[in-house]
Design a protein that fits this description.
- There is one protein chain.
- With 905 residues, the chain is an alpha+beta fold.
- The protein is built from 28 helices and 26 strands.
- Strands 1, 4, 6, 7, 8, 9, 10, 11, 12 and 13 form a ten-stranded mixed sheet that branches.
- It is globular and about 125 Å long.
């Protein structure tokens, strides 16, 4: 069998050699037979003639031999390919339209799939990623196990138990400041324990990686060391080989570069990459008094382990739970009793980590799958449109096909040639689609990035993406190629003798084209409805009242970790910076706060409400909280509608006061909120009690999609260490006449006069708002573009069918016009059939949309999935486009000269 296979492969790929060998073998047999005849006394010429007769026809023998080797089929396919190329070249306009349509829809599908592949399917670029697991507990969020963060003491307890796994490691994402003071120059970094690289099997391309001996508080034998990424090495050092041994200052601390990671390694968080990795215990060197290494209450590390080859997820989880009580008891933080109880009882577990951890995945998995479904529907519409074009083209070639049948060609041969044309078109479309996808994937990834967070995603073409594209090409070949091929192969041979025949086959094709238009219209309704929902949702978000004015506000993040100011002096330092900035020209007001709008965080697990004449009631409900200075509400344009604002007298030692928002007052206080006492249970050694002195309007603090939570505000001047160490604070600056960005230099100079060691990061609040709408903007743009593309394809398909109907009936229309029929009546008759097709398609599309729209309910804001206005708008838009597509050829038919048409006939 192997020998036979080798012979067949040689016949295909070494054709000339095989043909020469066949000729030599035939000559050998003829010579042998001729020599036998010559020994019988027959002369040479007659002997050769008889030898050839005995052997049979030489070409016939060669054909039989080629058939045995499978060469004949290859020859036929090669001829089919050549004829298909010539046929496509003969109709360049149709061929170009088909190829461009396929390139767009295949490129869009491949581009979206490459993002899904990079975000969800692609495994981490480490050794044997299938054996990696996340160590977490069984807290379930949105139906999935949450990968939680751990404190360093908890990690240290797990690290010491080497019998649990083959290897384990811990890491955390962090941003380091390369500047010594003033405006920060941030780089993306990672804390990682000393066994990080060994556990993952990652080697340095130059230099070395760090190990356990380097993971010390003050650095190992070589002092603090760092490993940089390949991208950072190329970008900042130009790929210089002498980068090893150089020093880089991270948040003011010098680190020696000892190695560069491989180009493919981006870390363990899909969607982000790093510039530098340092040992986690050097965190104490960088953060000094704010270090979290000894804090059992500060969770910042993700734990990843490598299973032994004989270890399963269940056995690993069981092993963890066996030591859980010891680990938990040794790492209880300073929390309230109910928090401690949950911590002690939540069971340990492990979950697969082959594809890494990704907050981006949780956020964009649903939207990307939705977009993938939408582009798949666009692909179907494109295929239907191409099928219609090829059907019309096949109808134009019916005489050619019937003539070939009359001359003896088999129906299979004709069908095969047409399928070969479809394969050529699909291959060309797939090739162009891959080229488009190479731009579409990175373009979409860039749209996910924001000024503060750059998304890194590997969307390169790998075997999955290539296989997906080939599968699409094969599917499209079948979808749009099989109908024309089957129809063309059933053309009656007698059609070759007819000049103007309208056969039953032609009428059947026309019906097929009509039903394909129905499918196009139905799918287009679905996509236009989806586009309308996402666009209206985005418009609703952009018009939502925020409760503050973002455009004139600049947020300055002040980091005091590397200043000489002790923790007790940080808050006064921030207030001095505020006063310095308030005096600048162009500054209307300024305020300091612990958090800023759109920044997230700040949720507390419970509050206790005092009721007059009754015991205080604890409410176990997450509420948002912030610490602010006087002037915070005027800086953001958020009015205090009841009671009073914070004053400069609300300082440390004075009675603690609070302002709550309208939602807090309505849902938790009820009645008159002024004078009520609230107690806040935060992650502090003791609860915080304050009396309500004012109510502000509701303002968004997280995503604009979220409802405004109950919110409390406390004066920042009433808090000092140990309650809040204030390593960082936000200075919000409201400008009066100029754009916020134009004041960055003067603000930086004013703060530098107060303390030049304060690290500053500037974030215009308007830019943050736009960044928070990235997902909704992207969904609206993509859905709108794809909906418009579907609309155009459906319109072209309808125009093509109507034009074909008019062309097919030119003689009939001319006769009717010549006999006195009104042009409007002729046009109405043609439009009636078009209206029926569109009506059926709209009805089917509407029914499907009513069902399918509920699947995207979680992705739209403040809009019902079955929104009547969106549905009616989609139907009207599609109907108008259909009317335009049908009106153009009908108008042309109504204006034709019947005499000229009849003369041509």
């Amino acid at each position: 069998m192997l020998t036979d296979l080798i012979h067949r492969l040689r016949a295909l790929f070494a054709r000339r050699t095989v043909e020469r060998e066949i000729d030599e073998e035939l000559r050998f047999h003829i010579e042998r037979q001729a020599e036998a005849y010559e020994r019988g006394g027959i002369n040479r010429g007659e002997a050769l003639r008889r030898a050839r007769i005995d052997l049979g026809g030489l070409e016939q023998v060669k054909e039989e031999y080629r058939d045995a080797l499978g060469v004949r089929l290859a020859d036929e396919l090669r001829w089919d390919l050549r004829l298909a190329a010539r046929a496509l070249a003969a109709t360049p306009v149709v061929t170009s339209i088909v190829m461009l349509s396929l390139a767009l829809v295949i490129g869009a599908n491949t581009g979206v799939y490459s993002i899904l592949n990079g975000l969800i399917l692609r495994t981490l670029p480490v050794r044997d990623p299938a054996r990696l697991v996340h160590v977490t507990d069984s807290v379930v969020t949105d139906g999935a196990t949450r990968v939680r963060a751990w404190s360093y003491p908890a990690w240290d307890q797990i690290r010491q138990r080497t019998e649990l796994f083959e290897a384990s490691t811990a890491w955390s994402f962090v941003r380091f400041n390369l500047a010594s003071g003033g405006e920060a120059r941030l780089v993306d970094g990672m804390w990682a324990d000393g066994g990080f690289f060994e556990a993952l099997g990652v080697r340095a391309v130059i230099g070395r990686t760090f190990g356990i001996h380097d993971d010390q508080v003050n650095g190992g034998p070589n002092g603090p060391v760092a490993v940089i990424s390949y991208g950072y090495w190329q970008r900042e050092y130009g790929g210089a080989a002498d980068v090893i041994g150089r020093t880089m200052r991270l948040t003011g601390v010098p680190f020696t570069i000892i190695g560069v990671t491989p180009q493919a390694f981006f870390g363990l968080e899909v969607g982000r990459t790093f510039d530098v990795i340092v040992p986690v215990r050097t965190e104490a060197l960088i953060r000094d008094a704010d270090s979290a290494l000894d804090s059992a209450s500060t969770n910042f590390l993700s734990i990843v382990a490598r299973l032994r080859r004989d270890q399963s997820l269940e056995s690993a989880s069981a092993g963890l739970r066996h030591v859980q009580a010891e680990v938990r008891a040794a790492t209880v933080g300073q929390w309230e009793k109910d928090t401690v109880d949950r911590y002690l009882t939540s069971p340990f577990t492990v979950v697969p980590a082959a594809t890494g951890y990704s907050s981006l995945r949780r956020r964009y998995e649903g939207p990307l799958i939705t977009i993938a479904v939408i582009v798949a529907l666009v692909l179907l519409i494109g295929c239907v449109n191409v099928a219609n074009l090829l059907l019309a083209r096949a109808i134009g070639r019916r005489h050619e096909m019937s003539l070939r049948l009359a001359l003896g060609a088999t129906r299979w041969r004709i069908a095969r040639q047409l399928l070969m044309e479809s394969v050529l078109l699909s291959a060309a479309g797939a090739g162009l689609g891959l080229w488009f996808a190479a731009f579409i994937g990175p373009f979409l990834v860039r749209q996910l990035s924001t000024p503060t967070t750059v998304v890194f995603l590997d969307v390169s073409i790998d075997w999955r993406v290539l296989g997906f594209t080939l599968a699409i090409a094969a599917a499209t070949s079948l979808l749009f190629g099989i109908a024309p091929a089957l129809r063309a192969s059933h053309v009656p041979p007698i059609d070759a003798l007819k000049d103007h025949s309208r056969t039953t086959t032609e009428s059947t094709r026309h019906r097929v084209m009509g039903w394909l238009v129905v499918v196009q219209v139905a799918l287009s309704v679905i996509l236009v409805v989806a586009a309308g929902l996402f666009i209206r949702s985005f418009i609703g978000l952009t018009n939502r009242p925020l409760g503050f004015e973002p455009d004139p506000v600049l947020v300055v993040v002040m980091d005091a970790q590397r200043t000489t100011a002790p923790p007790l002096e940080r808050r006064p330092l921030y207030e001095r910076a505020r006063e310095a900035v308030r005096g600048l020209p162009g500054v209307a007001d300024a305020a300091v706060s612990y958090l800023s709008p759109l920044g997230g965080g700040g949720f507390t697990p419970a509050v206790q409400i005092e009721h007059s004449g009754a015991p205080a009631v604890r409410v176990d409900r997450e509420v948002f909280g912030n610490l602010v200075t006087a002037g915070w509400f005027t800086t953001y344009g958020t009015p205090v509608t009841v009671g009073r604002n914070f004053a400069d007298d609300d300082r440390h030692g004075a009675p603690r006061v609070a302002i709550v928002n309208e939602t807090f007052a309505r849902e938790l206080l009820g009645g008159d909120p002024i004078g009520r006492m609230i107690t806040i249970f935060a992650n502090t050694p003791r609860a915080i009690s304050a009396r309500v002195v004012g109510v502000s309007t509701d303002a968004i603090h997280g995503s604009p999609r979220e409802r405004v939570p109950p919110t409390w505000y406390l004066p920042i001047a009433q808090f000092d260490v140990p309650e809040f160490p204030f390593p960082t604070a936000r200075l919000s600056v409201r400008t009066s006449t100029e754009a916020p960005e134009s004041l960055i230099r003067s603000i930086a100079a004013a703060i530098a006069d107060v303390d030049p060691q304060l690290a500053l990061t500037f974030r215009p609040l308007g830019s943050q708002l736009r960044a928070s709408l990235t997902q909704d903007r992207l969904m609206a743009q993509l859905a709108g573009f794809l909906g418009a593309l579907a609309l155009v394809l459906a319109t072209l398909g309808l125009y093509g069918v109507t034009s074909y109907a008019v062309t097919r009936r030119r003689t009939e229309i001319a006769i009717r016009l010549a006999l006195g029929a009104a042009a409007t009546r002729v046009a109405a008759q043609i439009l009636t059939r078009v209206s029926i097709l569109v009506g059926i398609g709209v009805a089917a599309g509407t029914a499907i949309s009513l069902w399918a729209s509920t699947l995207v309910g979680g992705l739209i804001y403040d809009l019902q999935p079955r929104d009547p206005a969106t549905l009616v708008g989609a139907v009207l838009v599609l109907s108008c486009m259909a009317a335009l597509a049908a009106w153009l050829p009908v108008r042309r038919a109504a204006r034709m000269d019947p005499v000229a048409i009849l003369r041509e006939s």
